[in-house]
Each structure stands twice: as structure tokens, then as C-alpha cells.
Amino acid sequence: MKRTSAALGSFAFLLVTPGTVCGLVPLLITGWRRPVESQPWVDALGWLLVLTGAAVLLHAFVAFAWHGRGTPAPSAPTERLVVQGAYRHVRNPMYVAVLAVVLGQVLLFASWGLFTYLVVLGITVNVFVHTYEEPTLREAYGPAYEEYRENVPRWLPRLTPWRGAAKRPDDRMRRRV
User: Fold this and answer.
1) How is the chain split into domains, by residue range?
2) Which residues have a Cβ under 8 Å from the Cβ of 30 and sit 6 or more positions away?
3) Could you tell me which residues come within 8 angstroms of residue 57 by beta carbon, excluding any fewer than 6 positions away?
4) Neighbouring residues of 112: CB distance < 8 A, sequence distance ≥ 6
């Protein structure tokens, strides 16, 4: 797939999927109504999570189009395993970013309904990753994905970026988690 096609497909998927999960559903739950009184530190943390999550999400979508030459959509997957940028720190930066955005909204809107949605979303994402995404990636990318999976955590980002054995032969035998 050409990068232009991949970028357009990724952008469309970004609008539909995370747009619904992080935008439409929270809107329907909260009506974008904020509490009359809130703690400034809670608001600051909420905005930090929303803005950081949105930035990581955008970065991850660009990485899919640019490095993987594909989209996050199962119907148009990447041609290459994407292990650049945020993917060097955590295997699922898109999901982590989406959950961060929704958690930030929970803090900003002080909504128990949105908190419940976040819990259900987190469980759903975890089950999806375990039952569909990881087996699919293992099948598609074989040993390259296995090495990546062994070195990069699924949910909690590692502090130092993983470089990969192909780029650093001296690290081939060393576990870098």
C-alpha cells in the first residue's frame, strides 16, 4: 500500500473508531457538562491525560501509515510490523492513548457513567488484544513479532526505547524489558 493511501485510510479509521470511542460516546454520557466546582489539580491532570493521549494517538496513526504502510483497521493492515516511535516503549500505544483520553475525561467531567464506560472499555480492549490481535500479529510477523513481544511491554511503557536485535546485534541475546 502506498503511504498516501495508508495515510488516508488511517485518518478515516481515526475519525471513525477513536472518534467514536473518545468523542461521541463520552459526549453522549456527559453532554460535555462539567461540574460547577472542581479542583484545579484534577482539571490539570485531566487535561494532561487528554492532550498527551491525543498526541500519542496521532503519532501512532502516523507511524502505521508511514512505517507500516497500512492502517490500524483489520481490513487494511500494515505491510510491516510497526516498531518505531511510541511502539518502542509499549506494544499498544493506541489503546493506552485512548484509555488515557477517556480517563482524562472522567476527571474533567467527574462522571461515574464515564468511569464505568472506561472500565468496560479497558476490559474489552484487553480481551481483544489477547484473543485476536496478538495471535494475528504472531501469525503475520512470526519471529519478528515474538522478539518484539518479549522485549516491549503490552500496557505499561518501558522508560527506554527498545532498539530491536536487528539494529543492535550485541543485544540479541539479552532480554530488554
Assistant:
1) 3-171
2) 105, 109, 111, 113, 114
3) 14, 18, 22, 93, 94, 97, 98, 101
4) none
Choosing among 1.20.120.1630, 1.20.120.30, 1.10.3660.10, 1.10.150.120, the CATH entry for 3-171 is 1.20.120.1630
Give the total residue count for the chain: 177
Distance between CA atoms of 36 and 136, rounded to whole angstroms?
Answer: 46
Give the cell for residue 139.
Answer: 501469525
C-alpha to C-alpha distance for 144 and 121, rounded to whole angstroms: 29
Its pTM stands at 0.85
pLDDT for the residue numbered 44: 97
What percentage of the chain exceeds 90 in pLDDT? 60
User: What pLDDT score was predicted for residue 3?
Assistant: 66
- In the chain, DSSP assigns E strands to none
Nearby residues of 122 by Cβ (< 8 Å), 6 or more positions away: 99
Burial level of 18, CB count in 10 A (0-12/13-18/19+)? buried
